[in-house]
User: What shape does this take?
Amino acid sequence: MNRCVTRSFLTRASSAVTSAVNGGANSGGRIVVTVQPEFINSPMYKTTSFYRSFSSASSQPPEKKSPTSATAVGAAERGGNEKITVVDEKTVKEGNISAVTSYWAVSRPEITADDGTKWRWNCFMPWDTYEADLSIDLSKHHKPTTILDKIAYRTVKLLRLPTDIFFKRRYGCRAMMLETVAAVPGMVGGMLLHLKSLRRFEQSGGWIKALLEEAENERMHLMTMVELVKPKWYERMLVITVQGVFFNVYFALYLMSPKIAHRVVGYLEEEAIHSYTEYLKDIESGAIENVAAPAIAIDYWRLPKNATLKDVITVIRADEAHHRDVNHFASDVHFQGRKLKEAPAPIGYH
Assistant: This one.
């Protein structure tokens, strides 16, 4: 494990380091501490409790080994090896190295991509990536038959009017706005099912995870679109307003009638499919430049390195079709008088 800490951390943690060195001599592991030059060259270096601790407890006290670093090696409590890199706070403040000053020094193991290179994203991991299922039927539509279905359908159609007026055929900006809203229902539904599960001491049938996966997937759509479209200040203000209103309205709707809430989202996803289809038409006609795909999209959807905007919009549209199916299915379960937990949740259904 590799940890990066600062001098102020060592002041607080030297006793713990000493304990680790003294207490684990029989474990076969070791602690390797590399001290960076900013710290070594400081007149305070040999006055720190860190230096004194290793001078008395380590098999090799920290001393200058080269103009660039000093290293201390000692036995560790754990069987594995642990490497601690010490830097000066000034180095961190100047942005020369990414480190967090904390007594706890929490870190994660090194994560690599399929090709063995270091994983470059913190917002998602290699096991979150996938290849989109492009074979899904994009033309499927739930015909509104009941009064509640018709209310949900008409509500979504009504919500589309101001979007058409404001964005017209600026589909990049439209998609950005759409994704800030589309990521809300899954989070709200998952959160309320989570609370319900806690109150009633019962399982959710996997639906909590399924809905939170949907919310995360929609958020990744947004992170991708932000790389392609830089929102203007008034669009950011619009996002804040729309998200605030939509979250509270959908929260109340889900409390009152989950079957209507899921039906509304199903119809919203149908509209999303339509919008992305129009987006693709403009790309194919040349009205919108078919630029290179952002790196985040290439890694998230496992696209080829030469993927373009068209490829990105195609996989996002496929995702929306899957979300359409999930929400119409959830609504059907409720309309049949059953509970969601009685129907296996489509976890990982992108």
